[in-house]
Amino acid sequence: MKKNNRNVIISGTGSYAPEKIYTNKYLEQIVDTNDEWIYKNLGIKERRIASKDQCTSDLAMIAGQRAIDDAKISKENIDLIIVATATPDRLAPSTACFVQDKLNIYRAAAFDISAVCSGFLYAMSIGHQFIANYTYDNILIIGADTFSKITNWKKRDCVFFGDGAGAALLSSYNGNNRGFRSFELHADGRGKYNFTIPGGGSEHPADENTIQKEMHYFEMNGSEVYNTGTKVLPEVINKILNDQEMIIDDIDYLIPHQPSIAILKKTSKIIGLPFDKVLTNMDRYANTSGATIPILLDESNKNGLLKKGNNILFAAVGSGWTWGASLLKW
Predict the structure, then answer these.
(1) 204 with 298, same domain?
(2) Which of 5, 10, 54, 207 has its CA 20 to 30 A from that of 270?
(3) Model pTM score
(4) Separation CA 173–CA 95 (nearest Å)
């Protein structure tokens, strides 16, 4: 007899951002930019920067431990660790294996996924399916990135990113009044070069030439990021609402990836969601890529903003292109 899919909830959240801060005023001293432009167009005032001896797994480990503590779950009951990152500790092994070792969760499987700024949303979808179909009961999902390590601090686009990690513990739930209701994921590889890191992979292995050409830093086409984001985010959000036979007024909060304040304002206008329902923290953290959604989720949870029964939308767009949305009843 076929079992019905189980409901899946977020049973705990955690986050961590490094102590070091680069303000816009500081960046004015090292690159041709200014605080007023950055804040007006991007919504950023400052960003956190990992220390030289901190790698992505260090940030991920702290966020993961805090999510475990928040869920009040034994590490022995965690079945899987998924880390969403575009800045892994090494090309091999996975950053998830580093995190597993640092957290001493040796009975869990562990792997990374790469969808850049959409990574955490993709990872939640994967974790949800494992639990819904009775394969696992508890899965630790972590989004973590240290973009400061691949930022060219001589270029103006250094203002966009910061470092951080966020985590959520997904768990099975026997009731029907909570949990994830829908996921909608997409990709379009035709946009693959609008945000990319050219060097270091099999296409351009690291050598003296790639280093001299500064190919190990990220490169982005800012106007294409804006154009794509303001097109696909409203579309995927409306698809979720239509599938669930809901209207935008049914949504209590949107917890989005933090690409820029301009993209989020445009998206909220198109979908008709008041901007005070669009949660942001990019003023303090900038864009932390895969960590943006879980850091914001953790802050909203720990501050008591999210109430039982709230309808929460998640949405993200990232390199690839990749994008998606999800609906959760808190």
Answers:
(1) yes
(2) 10
(3) 0.96
(4) 28
